[in-house]
């Protein structure tokens, strides 16, 4: 099979103005997708005192593709494909080729397996593939902010514009290269099925915004959009499914899965590390560094709390006082400085798992589903920001340091910036165990259903996310942050809701 496709998104533009509000010092953004069009949205209309705002977006993708499938006697399987893609989202090497191949061997169909009665299925498989992300820069806009009185000539202020973010003119494809090896097995007349897979995937030239400083001329601190880093995910996953019809009236099932994952950065733009992500008082919480996991927190390791001013003065920690966090002297030189920062944990779980159970007895059905993760850390950015602003959580207030001997874990509460530098106190265990779903249902007797002019009538009760066990001091340990570098930073992340439902299913 082969084919060709071409996609061009419709170009949308919108222009708005608001009179008599431009010269009050307010900022307004002009979202410019393509930097070459930057002068199309010029400031000539500003003489009338209006505040213009405009947006545009355009994307083009072109693809050639082909695929071959081969199946010999249901025993030897081959699937090979190749894509030749081009995208307007990158500046250099817009055309790129992405091959993929997978093979399978169904051992259980071989003649030498005909006499065995253990395996209903035994299959080995392997695959290799490359894939490109054609939307690498779509979530970023090259943005121009128009500022009233932003430029001065003599004693007069005039409207001016500044670029908020700069997209690297040499930005290229973001690609993923993956290899996996797996086995599939079935036993007990196909009632029990087991799968296992080892995987190794590398994402190369990931697009992200990095700190470039004001030297770029842009106003956004994370202002340079480029191919910032590459990383590798490798590990294994196992799944098990068991379904059994005990008799005509009783059916039961069990399923489970487990994934072990190691994430590691393999390359970083411009050197061995980048400090990025959320920051507090100019101090980045995340460091991207080769050999570490994506999104790893970087800061000071807290070794306790100073109990007296004398202890603090002798520590080598500049400006420290009684009640402040005591930072560990990592290099042992007697002075606490940026060289004492260290990695404090990763937001990526070392393991994820899930399992569930189903049971049908006569007209009653029941199901329950569990989920959990372990080995990951959460950065409690909410708690860090509460220092000094009188919106503390209850644990923070009740257990704060209030004098010598009151706490060697929790500090005093103060707005002093030195005490709330990124540190291990705000890094918490992100492991959790959750009941994801419970449902019980009942199929009413057919005579009742037919009296209501339906074939079947089932009523049910369900609870989604009704209970979660975790140690984290926030609302929820599941941080749904779509930014992959800041995926574990809890910055006002809305918690997952528990949902309780009563309903019915009708079959006509």
UniProtKB/TrEMBL annotation:
Report the domain of life of the source organism: Bacteria
Cite the SUPFAM superfamilies for this sequence. Answer: Porins
Q: What is its main location?
A: membrane
Membrane-topology annotation of the record: Multi-pass membrane protein
Q: InterPro entries, from UniProt?
A: Beta-barrel_TonB_sf, TonB-dep_rcpt-like
* UniProt KW keywords: Cell outer membrane, Membrane, Transmembrane, Transmembrane beta strand, Transport
PROSITE patterns in UniProt? TONB_DEPENDENT_REC_3
Q: Name one GO cellular component term.
A: cell outer membrane
Q: Where in the cell is it found?
A: Cell outer membrane
Name the family the entry cites. Belongs to the TonB-dependent receptor family.
Name listed for the protein in its UniProt record: Uncharacterized protein
Identify the species of origin: Epilithonimonas lactis
């Amino acid at each position: 099979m082969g084919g060709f496709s071409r996609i061009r998104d419709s170009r949308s533009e919108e222009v708005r103005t608001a009179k008599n509000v431009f010269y009050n010092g307010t900022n307004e953004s002009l979202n410019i997708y393509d930097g070459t069009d930057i002068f199309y949205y010029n400031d000539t209309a500003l003489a009338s005192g209006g505040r213009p705002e405009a947006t545009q977006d355009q994307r083009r993708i072109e693809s050639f593709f082909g695929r071959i499938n081969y199946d010999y006697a249901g025993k030897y399987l081959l699937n090979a494909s190749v894509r030749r893609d081009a995208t307007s989202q990158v500046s250099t090497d817009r055309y790129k080729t992405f091959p993929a191949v997978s093979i399978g061997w169904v051992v259980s169909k071989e003649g030498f397996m005909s006499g065995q009665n253990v395996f209903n299925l035994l299959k080995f498989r392997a695959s290799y593939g490359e894939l490109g992300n054609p939307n690498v820069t779509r979530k970023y806009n090259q943005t121009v902010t128009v500022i009233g009185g932003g430029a001065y000539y003599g004693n007069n202020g005039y409207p001016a514009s500044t670029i908020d973010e700069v997209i690297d003119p040499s930005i290229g494809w973001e690609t993923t290269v993956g290899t996996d090896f797996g086995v599939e097995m079935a036993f007990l007349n196909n009632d029990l099925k087991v799968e296992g897979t080892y995987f190794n995937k590398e994402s190369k030239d990931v697009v992200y915004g990095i700190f470039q400083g004001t030297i770029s001329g842009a106003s956004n601190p994370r202002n340079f959009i480029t191919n910032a880093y590459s990383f590798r995910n490798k590990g294994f996953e196992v799944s098990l499914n068991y379904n059994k019809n005990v008799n005509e009236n009783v059916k039961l099932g069990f399923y489970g899965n487990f994934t072990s994952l190691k994430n590691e950065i393999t390359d970083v733009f411009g050197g061995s590390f980048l400090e990025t992500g959320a920051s507090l008082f100019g101090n980045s919480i995340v460091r991207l560094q080769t050999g570490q996991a994506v999104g790893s927190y970087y800061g000071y390791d807290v070794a306790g709390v100073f109990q007296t001013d004398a202890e603090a003065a002798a520590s080598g920690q500049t400006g420290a006082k009684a009640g402040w966090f005591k930072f560990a002297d990592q290099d042992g030189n007697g002075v606490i400085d940026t060289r004492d920062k260290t990695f404090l944990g990763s937001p990526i779980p070392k393991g994820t798992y899930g399992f569930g159970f189903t049971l049908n007895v006569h007209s009653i059905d029941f199901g329950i589903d569990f989920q959990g993760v372990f080995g990951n850390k959460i950065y409690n950015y909410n708690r860090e920001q509460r220092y000094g602003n009188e919106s503390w959580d209850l644990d923070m207030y009740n257990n704060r340091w209030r004098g010598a001997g009151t706490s060697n874990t929790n500090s005093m509460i103060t707005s002093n910036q030195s005490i709330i530098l990124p540190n291990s106190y705000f890094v918490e265990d992100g492991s959790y165990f959750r009941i994801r779903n419970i449902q019980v249902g009942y199929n009413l007797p057919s005579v009742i259903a037919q009296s209501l002019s339906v074939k079947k009538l089932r009523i049910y009760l369900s609870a989604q996310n009704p209970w979660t066990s975790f140690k984290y001091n926030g609302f929820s340990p599941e941080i749904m942050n779509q930014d992959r570098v800041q995926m574990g930073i809890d910055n006002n992340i809305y918690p997952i809701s528990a949902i309780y439902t009563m309903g019915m299913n009708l079959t006509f």
